[in-house]
Amino acid sequence: MAQRILFPIAVVVLTILVGIFLTHDAPEEELPAEPEEVERADYFLAEFAIHHHDEQGKMRSILRGKQGEHFPVSQTIQIDQPHWQAESTDGSIWFANSPFGSFKRDTQVIILHEDVDIRRQADEQRPPLDIVTRELFINIDNHQAMTEERVVATDPWGSAEGIGMTLDYYRDRLQLHNQAKGRYETKQGE
Amino acid sequence: SDSQPRPPIEVEADRVDMDAKSGISIYQGNAVMTHGEMRISGDRIEIHTTEEGELKHLIVIGQPARYRDLPEGEEQEVRAKASRMEYYVSGPERALFFGDALFWQGQDSLSGDSVFVNLETQAVKAQGNDDQRARAIIYPGQREER
Fold first, then answer.
1. CB B49 to CB A157 under 8 A?
2. Domain residues of chain A, as ranges?
3. What is the CATH number of domain A43-184?
4. Which residues cross the membrane (chain A) (predicted)?
5. For B18, which of A92, A156, A160 is closest by C-beta distance?
6. pLDDT digits (tens, 9 = 90+) for B60-81
7. pTM score above 0.90
8. Cβ contact (<8 Å) for B54 and A186?
9. Sites in chain A below the pLDDT cut of 70
């Protein structure tokens, strides 16, 4: 008698277990990922220049580009062959360029990507100063250019290198933040 | 001798501040300068350059700053310590030590408020002040005749 009762129960339990097993391992059907919204440029620039003026209206820096694409949402201009030029308070001229870069209109920051060449033009007091680094962030509002990458600054008689730099191009001053090394050639004994 | 090309001056420190207009670079934090056999260390090394960018002199500040060199033809190093040191590359090449200056080679020593060393003639001069007289300790017996 007991057997007649137990058998159907066992069948039911077995069916449930098999059902759980089958459904448990069934991979959740992957919902198709929503296509990432790709921002589109709303206008294009060619051979363009963006001028920045200080509070007194004096032009302080110019950003030129061979080609540019303006992206409205991120308020960014992607620039091909950016060339930046600025003037210090004493009139010395700084240049910087890189293969490509971007300009963030909302934060007024120019970003020069990859290899960046910076030059302080020679003047009556000083020879030219050339600086090589990467990924340079130029903040127009506080007239500082910063990088966290390796920096090598060279003039005719020597060089200084370090990791990370803050360049205040208004005051013609730069600080290399870490691992600073300098090398200065000396003339033959006089 | 002077016909040999002079070694470069190399400086290392935690960081450096460079004034591109005046040509002064200030190396700070565990600062060490080497120039051939010469070695100067301190907390801060200031590099002063000419208008062409050539290094003309440097100033070292330390607690104390330390100096070491092996003069040409000598077998024993000369050493010095002082709160402030100045090194001039030429005109003549010289090292000046200020503030509790002590300059020694082996057991011989010279101390005072300041000590001046002409690195081209190896002439050494010490100067005292109101608080500290200049003092020389020389062990004649142990110096070989040159």
1. yes
2. 43-184
3. 2.60.450.10
4. 5-22
5. A160
6. 999 999 999 998 888 999 999 9
7. no
8. yes
9. 1-6, 16-37, 188-190
